[in-house]
Amino acid sequence: MPNLEHPAYPAATLLHLEGLVPCRESQVSMLLSIFGERQQFSFPSIFIYGHTSSGKTYVMQTLLNTLQLPHVFVNCVEYFTSRLLFEEILIQLHGCSETEQTSHVPCDNFNDFVRLFKQAVASQELQNQTVYIVLDRAEQLREMEANILPAFLRLQELTDRNVTVVLLSEIVWELFRPNTGCFEPLTLYFPDYSIGHLQKILSQNHPPNYSADFYAAYINILLGVFYMVCRDLKELQHLAVLNFSKYCEPVVRGEANERDTRKLWKNIEPHLKKAMQTVYLREISSSQWERLQHDNREPGQLKGLSAHTHVELPYYSKFLLIAAYLASYNPVRTDKRFFLKHHGKIRKTNFMKKHEKTSNHLLGPKPFPLDRLLAILYSIVDNRVAPTANIFSQITSLVTLQLLSVVGHNDQLDGPRYKCTVSLDFIRAVARTVNFDIIKYLYDFL
């Protein structure tokens, strides 16, 4: 017995719709009840919210397209100003024909939008149907003018037309509500997919060369590894496609059959653990990841792969980290050699003591005072950097991120001493982002 029933739509269409939106039948049934028949007035505004990849956008697009309801679908991130938003709605409403795209009337404010919206509805003969305006990523409306959100919620009243505005968002309505008050929309929550729902959805995409039970067993293993750290359906679909070839290797080589779960699990387990280290990060492309799997190498061994933690560092924080690394791994008396213009000729062999014959990188980082760190910073940065509170706060941030560590106690009178805790590969990746050749400034590489 089908879960979706509505007297206004054919049973075959609803059955097809049910197959397109698995595990979201209750939400679709609720929306069908709210929408009613084509000519009936629907609720003026609907607010649909839920976490990322909970099916909000997909369900709305599938529902409106399958039932062939007149609608406009706009992403508020792409059309980030009120004018762009208004004009895109009107363009889509006109059917996006070539002549109407090039000769559309500019729409600068909401009064113009209401007037042009009435004309568009009349020209498209949509007076007797409900027009749906879907605003995806609707939280961006809060960044626009203060009247945009309340006006969209009351668009049916302002235009005196049969129109419903649907807002899709990842945050709750309480964070939308203006302080001055507004028309309250009908709220609908899309819960996260459970592990059973994810199993059902992901298992539908099984390759034709393998049985459905074999692919379902693979999805079960995948969810067993990733479900606790990742419940994003899109990310799980990406991981399922990326690692399936490795799962099939014993079957392709003839070493196991499709029911030999133990051998298949032993083959895929180490590769899923590698993939778990880079969930969401996309540090390497899918082709590079497949090459790593084929060569049985670690992700960090790929040439050109940068450490992801340095990406978010501010500009001067990167130079602070470079200066800290130089202070930790260079002897104090070499600062004159590296950072003064007229330092004369100093040969490495002339002043190398017995204990310096061992590489400083093998001995580990040495502590350094704050004034030495700042002196090296001023030498390696081209622009003049004033010792402001901003610089000192960035040093504190590097300590919080555990890229630097404080040595000694806070009650020392001679000032704080620090030690750089990052590796050579990490600092080289950071230095590349600011076009700084750190190898030229390291004593061990003279």
Could you walk me through the main structural features you see in this protein, from its secondary elements to its overall organization?
Helix content is 45%, strand content 8%. The strands form 2 sheets. A 5-stranded parallel β-sheet has the order 2-3-4-1-5, sandwiched between helices. The chain has helices at residues 11-20, 25-35, 56-66, 82-93, 98-102, 110-123, 148-153, 155-159, 195-203, 212-226, 233-252, 261-276, 286-295, 315-329, 335-339, 360-363, 370-380, 389-400, 424-433; strands at 45-49, 71-75, 131-136, 163-169, 186-189, 368-369, 404-407, 417-420. α11 (233-252) crosses α12 (261-276). The chain is flat. The protein is α/β, with parallel strands linked by helices. The chain is built from 19 helices and 8 strands.
List its salient traits.
8% strand, five-stranded parallel beta sheet, 446 residues, flat, 19 helices, alpha/beta, 45% helix, three-stranded antiparallel beta sheet, single chain
For the largest sheet, list the strands in their spatial order. Answer: 2-3-4-1-5
Could you give the distance between the termini?
A: 78 Å
The general outline is: flat
Major β-sheet profile? 5 strands, parallel
Radius of gyration from CA coordinates: 31 Å
Mean pLDDT across the residues is 84
Percentage of helical residues?
A: 40-55%
What class, by secondary structure content?
A: alpha/beta
- Helix and strand pattern: HHEHEHHHEHHEEHHHHHHHHEHHEEH
